[in-house]
TrEMBL record:
InterPro entries xrefs: AraC_XylS_family_regulators, Homeodomain-like_sf, HTH_AraC, Tscrpt_reg_AraC-type_HTH
UniProt xrefs under Gene3D superfamilies: Homeodomain-like
SMART domains: HTH_ARAC (SM00342)
HTH araC/xylS-type domain sequence ranges: 199-297
GO MF entry, a single one: sequence-specific DNA binding
Protein name from the UniProt record: Hypothetical transcriptional regulator
Length: 299
């Protein structure tokens, strides 16, 4: 039986803060200006109580969880496992107990983020959408996105923030289509950006390669929603915005390596990479060779 007295109103019911004040260990975190964010945690031997947070939380188990369960008024408890998904809507209440170490990813986002995505992506009013409260479900689509796209990002590098915001939009749309209480059809989006808009976007990207570039900035220039912009950009340029920006940054770096004697760390900053190691990682991905070796071969 769940004790009703466990849930007490506090000044801040955010799940992130609850875990910080619990036995959990924070391994990584990323927060965006709009208030959404992500964190990777581990925990063991204890319990956590969530009482009416003001935001939605997606929880994805990365490792362990077989001895983690949510307290329900049911005879047989339901336990977690790697790749299991939990959705905890705003204003929900839940209690969790765990007796062995497990590691998990959290995505935090407000209902306004989900509603805005719904209205922009599907051209419908989104006041009445509701995120389902789900515990330990399977979702192979999100599992692939998290393991192969989100987790490999360097969360502390500004150039990967663009990729993170793009992944967010993909996740939101998937949640709306598969884990909310609404039924709808995707709008048909044909064609890419107009030649004038594409030229304007391309010029902006080239002029700001050394700076942080976000989907929101580019979508505003195109006067489109972030969701529609990302789809139309892909059709016009042949790749998602973050991949296109990354390609241009590595091409600029290659030119600087060939024509200047600037230190690698300086070139990394000039091309929008936050550090030399991150620059080296992406340069090697595109050219199959390190920047230092590339420069050596140009002599």
């Amino acid at each position: 039986m769940i004790e009703k007295s466990v849930c007490k109103e506090t000044e801040n019911n955010a799940i992130f803060n609850t875990l910080q004040n619990n036995t959990a260990t924070l391994h990584n975190q990323l927060w965006l200006p709009n208030g959404s964010g992500a964190a990777i945690w581990s925990n063991e031997n204890g319990q956590a109580n969530y009482c009416k947070p003001d935001h939605h939380t997606l929880s994805f188990y990365l490792d362990g969880g077989e001895k983690t369960h949510r307290l329900y008024n049911r005879a047989k408890p339901l336990y977690g496992a790697p790749n299991k998904l939990c959705l905890m809507p705003a204003e929900h209440q839940s209690q969790w107990r765990f007796s062995s170490r497990f590691k998990f990813l959290h995505l935090y986002f407000g209902h306004n983020h989900l509603q805005s995505t719904f209205e922009k992506a599907f051209d419908k009013e989104g006041r009445n959408i509701e995120l389902m409260d789900q515990t330990f479900v399977d979702d192979s689509y999100l599992s692939n996105i998290f393991h192969h796209t989100l987790l490999p990002l360097n969360w502390h590098d500004r150039s990967d923030t663009l990729a993170f915001t793009h992944i967010q939009q993909i996740v939101y749309v998937h949640l709306l289509k598969n884990h909310c209480n609404v039924q709808f059809n995707m709008p048909n989006i044909t064609g890419g950006l107009s030649p004038i808009v594409a030229k304007r976007i391309n010029e902006y990207i080239h002029d700001h390669l050394a700076s942080k570039i976000t989907i929101e900035q580019l979508a505003n220039i195109a006067e489109l929603s972030e969701f529609h912009f990302s789809r139309m950009f892909h059709q016009s340029f042949g790749s998602p915005p973050h991949q296109y920006v990354l390609k241009l940054r590595t091409q600029l770096a290659a030119m600087l390596l060939k024509t200047t004697q600037h230190p690698l760390a300086d070139i990394a900053i000039q091309c929008g990479f936050s550090s030399q190691p991150h620059f080296t990682l992406h340069f090697k991905t595109f050219f199959s060779i390190t920047p230092a070796k590339y420069r050596q071969l140009q002599r």
